Amino acid sequence: MTKITELFNIKYPIIQGGMIWVSGWKLASAVSNAGGLGLIGAGSMYPDVLREHIQKCKKATDRPFGVNVPMLYPDIEKIMDIIVEENVKIVFTSAGNPKTWTQFLKDKGIKVVHVVSSVKFALKAEAAGVDAVVCEGFEAGGHNGREETTTFTLVPMVKQKVKIPVIAAGGIGTGRGMLAAMVLGANGVQIGSRFAATLESSAHDNFKKTIVEVKDGGTYLTLKELAPVRLVKNKFYEQIQELYQKNPSIEEIKNLLGRARAKKGMFEGDLEEGELEIGQIAGVIEEIKSAKAVIEDIMDEFDSVKEELTAFSVS
Q1: Is residue 143 part of a domain?
Q2: Is the same domain home to 104 and 47?
């Protein structure tokens, strides 16, 4: 039992990241049914699509689940109204000021968690009244903080400064990783990439196979002038690198990125021209399996390594 299992009333302190184009109701409900906390990723959903996913998730599980909301979303007011109308009890917010929506959600009896990439933003989130923070190191896939602080250093720094529970994210996808994060002070972990490569993930099969094929050094943090994002190295990534050789303007970078690159890559399976967002931990993912099997593997390894360390002594 940890502060995170108590906060969310879940069996294991494992939260599935609310990834765009990946985290639909099938994945969220599967993770929740297996004892973790599933999150629906609202960042790639129109409001009516989000409502449909929430309703289907409620039918698929009687256990707690939540919604992840990037606060830069253009229809944020509609998204928040739907969350309240559908009686969602847990919301993870990211990419914005936690002050904007935290009190609104808390007044509706909703537990709020904010994703941070620095001590400064963790303190701001705590001051805004959130129930917990996710400390996401730059090993993570998708959009990252500009600080480029690793999970291994971010978690203990935040733990030292805040009183609310801390969830570690970025570079975690195994039981060993989970145990390491908790030794550093985390009360639970948020895992994205490992759940992206599951049977229930809404990612395209081409993208899932790519995740399994990624080795160390196969991802790179780029597009820092817009919003730092970790991508698989593919044709689109090479186009970015070629453009950087010309010292491009922000507009030129935006023009290359265009629209719907992430959908094209992760949801539609275009491995050449699509944006393929995944974390460095993809290097240890070797097969696509069910979300339930992933959680069982993580917990089995967590327990076994914990026993090994308990028996370990330094003479």
Answers
A1: yes
A2: yes
H-only helix segments in the chain: 3-8, 25-33, 47-60, 76-85, 102-107, 119-128, 151-161, 175-183, 193-196, 205-213, 235-244, 250-257, 261-262, 291-311
Total tally of structural domains belonging to the chain: 2
What residue has token string 């969350």?
83
What are the tens digits of pLDDT across the range 294-314? 999 999 999 999 999 887 766
- Are residues 229 and 190 both part of a single domain? no
Look-up of token digits 């390894």: 301
Report the alpha-carbon distance of residue 93 to residue 227 in Å, rounded.
17
- Does residue 218 sit in helix, strand or coil? coil
Residue 55's domain spans which residues?
A: 3-202+282-305
Per-residue pLDDT tens digits for 74-104: 889 999 999 999 999 999 999 889 999 999 9
Residue 108 token pair: 């509706």
